[in-house]
UniProtKB/TrEMBL annotation:
Membrane protein topology class: Multi-pass membrane protein
InterPro entries: GPCR_Rhodpsn (IPR000276), GPCR_Rhodpsn_7TM (IPR017452)
Highest taxon of the lineage: Eukaryota
PANTHER family (UniProt xref): G-PROTEIN COUPLED RECEPTOR, THYROTROPIN-RELEASING HORMONE RECEPTOR
Organism per entry: Didymodactylos carnosus
Subcellular location: Membrane
Protein name from the UniProt record: G-protein coupled receptors family 1 profile domain-containing protein
Keyword Nucleotide-binding tagged: no
Transmembrane region(s): 23-44, 56-77, 97-116, 136-159, 179-206, 241-265, 285-307
């Protein structure tokens, strides 16, 4: 391969990477923050806030906000505008890598807990259903946060500013031994353990739902009438949460698995000194694509939930209408009418038929009339 052709390929790959980072990461930051905020507002509403699964997803959304505004913003500056903050401060290099690793695992762990909660809540055994409890969620959330923050501390000590490809400073793993360990550790957690647990709980939840549907089919209509409206709404919300999590599981597998696979490849070829500049450019571009897909997972949860959950969309409409009214775009009376229609559907006005009682008045005597006149 001729040198001018190699330089042309490298320049094209670098240009694609830079331009897509500028627009792609910028859109991720904007829509990711908007989506996470709406996730929090919707999951704090009455329909969801007493559900432990909603609490797990809510905490995951809050963790995603940290990831978006710390990790993706710095990646945008480094790749899109060639201003890498991590190479100017050793502390920031270590701190960013530590927070990125801990929050990414923490966010995914909360989704695993949400999947486990759906399995427990749909189980026919009372002992398993007992784990689907808001008190259990409030205990597990801070406990797992403390666990991942402590177990990820090795990232802070073994990341540093080193001279990388092309004699450029970069913030990465400091030694080749730790690079191999980090690749296997990340691949085991993000590429094997977490998606496997999600798939297992997802399949078991689907089996439980099939069993529930068979039982419901055998229940008579008279019993179903005894269920009040509030219980029906909670049941619909539970089913929608299950569908939302299953769709997110599929999206997670597509977006997150390429990154640990690339880490394993990089660990096995890190000591290869015969790589050409074109090969290094291609590998850098592939690394960028896997990171781009990985970041999509943290920015798209709201949009995945909105597309897959009908009750979630309804709550989003309520929140959106409240925001519109707050900024005075439409009148409050119009908002109340639309909110009523969203909640109760179209209503027919029925005529009120009341029986009008006839009152018989006795005639006035003539003697009394003379006195009046």
């Amino acid at each position: 391969m001729s040198s001018p052709l190699a330089i042309g390929i490298i320049n094209i790959l670098n240009s694609i990477q830079q331009q897509s980072a500028r627009y792609g990461f910028s859109l991720m930051i904007v829509f990711g923050n908007i989506g996470c905020v709406f996730n929090c507002l919707i999951l704090l509403r009455k329909t969801y806030r007493q559900n432990p699964c909603s609490l797990y997803i809510l905490t995951s959304s809050c963790t995603n906000l940290i990831f978006i505004n710390l990790v993706i913003v710095s990646r945008l500056l480094a790749v899109g505008y060639n201003y890498d903050l991590t190479i100017y401060s050793t502390f920031y290099c270590k701190f960013r890598a530590y927070i990125a690793f801990a929050t990414s695992l923490l966010s995914r762990t909360y989704i695993v807990l949400a999947c486990a909660d759906r399995y427990c809540s749909s189980s026919s055994k009372a002992r398993r259903r007992a784990f689907s409890n808001i008190k259990v969620a409030r205990y597990l959330i801070p406990s797992l946060a403390l666990f991942w923050l402590l177990s990820s501390i090795h990232v802070y000590f073994y990341w540093n500013i080193v001279i990388g490809t092309g004699n450029k400073y970069t913030c990465t793993t400091a030694t080749s031994i730790y690079t191999v360990f980090y690749a296997f550790y990340n691949a085991l957690l993000s590429g094997v353990l977490i998606p496997t647990l999600m798939i297992i709980f997802g399949v078991l939840t689907l089996q439980n739902i099939k069993q529930i549907n068979r039982r419901i089919h055998n229940i008579t209509a008279n019993i179903s009438r005894t269920i009040n409206a509030q219980q029906q709404r909670r049941g619909i919300a539970d089913n929608q949460l299950t569908v939302m999590l299953l769709v997110q599981l599929l999206f997670y597998v597509i977006s997150c698995l390429p990154f640990p696979i690339y880490l394993l490849y990089n660990a096995f070829t890190i000591n290869n000194q015969q790589k050409s500049t074109v090969q290094n450019a291609i590998e850098s571009f592939i690394s960028y694509l896997t990171i781009f897909l990985l970041y999509l997972n943290f920015c798209s949860t709201f949009y995945v939930y909105t597309l897959s959950g009908k009750s979630f969309r309804k709550e989003f409409k309520h929140i959106l209408m409240m925001v519109v009214v707050y900024f005075g775009i439409i009148k409050r009376s119009e908002q109340q009418q639309r909110s009523f229609k969203l909640t109760h559907g179209p209503q027919r006005i029925r005529p009120i038929n009341k029986t009008v009682e006839t009152i018989t008045v006795a005639p006035v005597p003539p003697s009394l009339m003379n006195k009046i006149h």
